[in-house]
What we know:
Layout: H1 2-29, H2 41-81, H3 83-110, H4 115-126, H5 128-144, H6 147-170, H7 176-216
Helix pairs in contact: 1-2, 1-6, 2-3, 2-4, 2-5, 2-6, 3-4, 3-7
Amino acid sequence: PTHIQTLSGSIMLGLLVFFILEKLLIWRHCHSGSCEVHGDVEEHEHGHTHGSHKSAGTIIIIGDSIHNFVDGVLIAAAFLTDVQLGIVTSLAVAAHEIPQEVGDFAILLHSGYSKKKALFYNILASLTTIIGGVLAYYSLGDLHDSLPYFLALASSSFIYIAVADLIPTLHKKTDIKTSLQQIALIFAGVVLIISLHGVAHDIQLENVENGEIHRQH
């Protein structure tokens, strides 16, 4: 219970951190004549929307980088335990990374990035997987206890973007057809994530058990 409370606190703290980060990024975009401090309300609203979308892209890049770093650590840990387990873990990570990266790419486009820049930053964030893997190989013991908190921080970035940017955007369209489509797609996404997570967990558990049996023999 204490461990769960600590992780929950880490997620809440992460939400606060990303709120402050977005606030700083919006202030950075608040140029003379385009915000409430320097201009009229209408200009401010336009500037705020632009800055908010840009900051959402920045936050998603940061969160994705942290998440990919953790993936690299997990893959390295699996390979150090057993080669077969490492291969299965890599496939499981790839399976959930593909839809996630597609979603991140869409968010970056929504944030005003060009296709070329969105692809570049997506690839750049993916490189942290290699960094996590290399660091885990040399200092797995030090990183192991911190993994849940890295995951909590990464999760808080995705939750923050969903609550602060994506959901308000979805609510701008209120017709029944669009609303039903949104609900159906969100539900399908939740089912897909749960299914992939369940399959990956079962495969990893089976391989860990097989590895232990193999070592006993």
